[in-house]
Amino acid sequence: CVHAVSPAAERLRYILGEDDDMPTPTLFTEMDTLQHDGDEMEWKESARWVKFEEKVEEGGERWSKPHVSTLTLHSLFELRTCIQTGSVLLDLEGYSLPQIVDDIVDRQVADGLIGPELREKVSFVLLRKHRHQHKKPIHLSLADMGKSNNSPTNPSQSRSMNDISDKPSTDQMKNKFMKKIPRDAEASNVLIGEVDFLDKPFVAFVRLAQATTLGGLTEVPVPTRFLFVLLGPHGKGKSYNEIGRAIATLMVDDLFSDVAYKARDRDDLVAGIDEFLDEVIVLPPGEWDPKIRIEPPKKVPSADMRKSVLNLNELGQVNGTAGGPGGGEDEEMPTPHELGEELQFTGRFCGGLWLDIKRKVPWILSDFSQGFHIQSISAVLFIYLGCITNAITFGGLLGDATDNYQGVMESFLGTALAGTVFCLLGGQPLIILSSTGPILIFEKLLYESNTIDYMELRLWIGLHSCLQCLILVATDASYIIKYITRFTEEGFSSLISFIFISDAIKKMVGSFKYYPINRVFKPDYVTTYRCDCIAPDQAAAMAFNVSVPLADDNMTDLYNLTGLDWSQLSKKECVKYGGALLGNACKYVPDLALISFILFFGTYSMTVSLKKFKTSRYFPTKCRSLVGDFSIIISILVFCGIDYLLGLDTPKLHVPTEVKPTRPDRGWVVMPFGKNPWWVYVASGVPALLVTILIFMDQQISAVIVNRKENKLKKGCGYHLDLFWVGILMAVCSFLGLPWYVAATVISIAHIDSLKMESESSAPGEQPQFLGVREQRLTGILVFVLTGVSIFLAPVLQYIPMPVLYGVFLYMGVASLAGIQFWERIKLYLMPAKHQPDFSFLRHVPLRRVHLFTLVQIICLAVLWTLKSTVAAIIFPVMILGLMVVRKMMDLMFSQHDLAWLDDILPEKDKKKEKDGKKKKDNKRTKAADPLPPPVKIPMDTIGLPSAPDPPSPPSLTVSSPPSLTHLAPRL
């Protein structure tokens, strides 16, 4: 059934439905209470709100931690009564506090709420000076206490006694709290006090026509837009304070603040309070201690849902021509699978490529200007270290696999060339290019075909693959990427992350093989340990010199060897000259494996800790932010320093020092003809097809992961443009004999993470809002330029221990797993149901179905891992396509509802779902066309409240307001 719209919502629908492009300013609310000290009075700041409540602690000159305001239901009803019975002045022309006070008092007198004889007394109280939390109290010393009785008490002197000026004070301008308040914010001031000359409450709600700076009224130099004044007789202070907290909480509520800005009369304000009461949640008094302060939630629910209920476009016209989301069923739905217009099939030759270029041209200048930020320095250094480590690792493996036809030098130059060109001209410059494992295996298998010249064959494969990539670009083939759902993305990115983690751990385990722990060493027997170098006999010396001549004259060498003092030679020299090592200490190796493990795990742990330090409670926000941004660099420097101070011979980073090919018998340019039969030039198109599939899948899946909507990228992406440049670079690198490059998923994700932006000014207690990523080309270009010139930085880079870089690799692999739903679902296997997090998919999908879906992903990941670890890794790209087939088959195992929450709906299913949705919506509209049932009215006599006639409603509406609660006024 369709729920009836409440009268309050019906009224607010028209208030908030008016076209107004100007957003409502953020409100800073300050509540001041009247303090008495003998005959002297002043307003003392007692609480403040930006989004959450902060109160001045009793007996302490400090603010409380921000917390969620907990209000009594009674205070909200009393506030409603105050608005109904008090003075409401909307769009008051006021430019100073005395003028505003005069207008308020005049209205109260005109309405007969106070007598004319109280005019001066009320004005005297309202114009007392305001002391904020950062100011000192009235009495600074015992001597000052004696002066209080000499203060004038004549109300006629009230105009001269107050210290409220029209200009902000120096204290206000220096207040650091301004950093927590958004720009263009306005203030709402709540004044609560007890006086002895009133016998009933004095209530006024004021909205100024223009926000005005009222000097010292507010603790920060923010112009005031709203004032709420509540003065009453003594004895009801706690009740007044709760009403003040209620109006202050309402003023920072997103929906009520909109109502306060657009209200036309007091009835609109009352309707705003009623809507708030409709949404308020009541806690049983016996099950909750109101003294407990509720911590602000990590994620604050958006007010858009509440506002959408009041939107005319959402709910339709009053006559019921459109349905709305007010149905009885659960309308919460998962985010649909959207990849944007970049993957629309144009049907034109190079249509997608042309659109990518048009999409990127307007951002050319900002692509460079936005890179000039201190955060970019950290990102450049972090990604640079990851890239050179990757280049050295893959370069060394390529050298072993291809007999040094491609080695570390080629890896460095290729990384610099391909990366710089791609970041300068590519469609998504945040993507980092690198060599990958499947490419390495392909190169190894290719080299093992010994009857054909490797470099020439590789050149033609690269040219064919380049041509095939260009054909894919021209035909908009990247369109099929829209069939890659979260299932495939998570499987691919998880595999790459696990590869990084396992490789880092394997490297560390390998160090225990090369530098074994000396288990038999006993400190008490250190005096018996020795190792001597024994000279070889004459025949052995002759044999040694014949086999390894040290100079032209063997007899001279023999004489030199026999004349050596072998006991003074080092271990390396002894072995070099053919001596023999004798003794139980000769095989001793310092525990380099242990210190390497400390460097490895210490780098990882410190990086993780410093990243979390950004959200800790220690030190100022800027300091924490700076430490978080530079966490990886700080960790590397710290453990490089520890290694340098220890002085142990840990394995270090080795960088080539000369620009020349690794293999002396090859040049920098590969000739296309002359070494292989003619048919090789044609037949190489077959293995090139496999390379193209590998390049296409690696590149585009990585691009989809980088461009996912969670990263809030604003400049669009360019799948076709990316593939175009990857294909061109394939041909260039093939001619130069350099490795092939494609998008590196883990390093690209790390690049994204290092450039994430958060809101600078967030309300106290509110988590900084993720704003997006610093989209620019500068960091990527600098990373690859530095990679190219690393040859000249070898004297510095040689001090970096390899275990430290392995720790960086481990961090990159673990960090890229964060936020992957697949990983969160794996952890559910180890949790009892009652301790599982409140994930949205667990609310809508049975747990056994969630586990089944996760199990399918685990099996697919295990198959991919097995293939990756064998020679069959060459068909790895085909298996990625296999993931898409598995996902298609899962439509037979799971309902579309379950898949919508656990994964994404495939495009053709989206269309079907859209049709079903339209039918459903038409049914709702038919039901909504029926006249709405009258709103349910609770008999107020059941709770001891006499019912009152409904206030008049606007002529175009039939609005039945909630009953009046004016009987509560005497209780104030």
UniProtKB/TrEMBL annotation:
A GO cellular component annotation in the UniProt record: basolateral plasma membrane
The record's section on Gene3D superfamilies has: Helical hairpin bin (1.10.287.570), Mannitol-specific EII, Chain A (3.40.930.10)
Q: Give the region (Disordered) as residue ranges.
A: 138-171, 911-972
Q: Which PANTHER family does the protein's record reference? A: ANION EXCHANGE PROTEIN, ELECTROGENIC SODIUM BICARBONATE COTRANSPORTER 4
The residue ranges of the Bicarbonate transporter-like transmembrane domain are 348-906
Answer whether the UniProt record assigns the keyword Cytoplasm to this protein: no
Instruction: Give the family per the record.
Output: Belongs to the anion exchanger (TC 2.A.31) family.
How is this protein named in the record?
Anion exchange protein
Residues passing through the membrane, by range: 377-399, 411-441, 588-606, 626-646, 678-697, 718-742, 778-797, 804-823, 855-886
Q: Where is the composition biased (Low complexity)?
A: 956-965
Q: Name one Pfam family in it.
A: HCO3_cotransp
Q: Which gene encodes it?
A: SLC4A5
The biased composition feature labelled Polar residues covers 147-163
Q: Where in the cell is it found?
A: Basolateral cell membrane; Membrane
Any one GO molecular function term: monoatomic anion transmembrane transporter activity
